[in-house]
Amino acid sequence: MKLSRDRIINLGKLLSDLIFPSNIYCICCGNLIDNSRIYALCDQCLESIHWANGRTCAKCGKVLMETEGRKLLDQIRSGPELCDNCQNNTHYFEQGFTCMQYSSMEREMVHRFKFNGCAYMGDKLGKILLDRILPEHLQLHLVMAVPMHPRNQVKRGYNQSELMAKMVAKGLGVDYNNQVLVRKQYKAPMNKLNAEQRYANVKSSYGLKQNSPKLEHQSILLIDDVYTTGSTVDECSRLLKEAGAEKVYVLTLAAGAN
Ligand SMILES: [Zn+2]
Ligand SMILES: [Zn+2]
């Protein structure tokens, strides 16, 4: 009997749920927790995570550090507060939002989610994203995820951003759509590249699927795991606008600080 790809994936999920039942271990530190906790985080991690609930860039959502220079600027600044990157660059997306600052413990958590087969973390982290975006009251038509190259996705077994995006879409009552964006080329991971190299890397890496639906008058929420320079979500936003999207908002789990 031939098993379809979906059935194999479902079987894999069932097995992983049996081996790694969700809501038993803290998704950040791995300590035992009771299964009623909303994000599957222990008290200590809930407190230690660098939540992006302070000052953030009005455009991309990056956490803004309280530097001396920034304090001085506060006295003369008028208009929205922007990170260095957004002061000097324009973006194709309307606005970015993030849940936490990408420091070492958040990096470890994202790493576990992506590379340790912990697909079950998608729902928990997706719930964090959902709670971040609900109060923004955005008018949205579709939720999308930054796509992975099919070869990478098969290797990993899932696209971590897609898992979170599906949870967000469900919570918002908006359709999840993976029919538009495509990751065209297999490229090396970007975490060792500088901003210029990243830009060149992403420019040729993403595209629109053939015969993808037109997005006229659509307002889209694009989900990714981490926002670093923003080059990936910016390129995806450019493509979505090319496909006719009216507005693109970006929501990430974690973002670098500035
Ligand atoms: Zn913990
Ligand atoms: Zn910014």
UniProtKB/TrEMBL annotation:
Query: Domain Phosphoribosyltransferase: where?
Result: 163-255
InterPro entries in the cross-refs = ComF/GntX_DNA_util-trans (IPR051910), DZR_2 (IPR044005), PRTase-like (IPR029057), PRTase_dom (IPR000836)
Entry protein name: ComF family protein
Q: Where would one find coiled-coil regions in this protein?
A: none
The chain positions of domain Double zinc ribbon read 16-87
Which PANTHER family has this protein been placed in? DNA UTILIZATION PROTEIN YHGH
Which family, according to the similarity comment? Belongs to the ComF/GntX family.
Name the SUPFAM superfamilies on file. PRTase-like
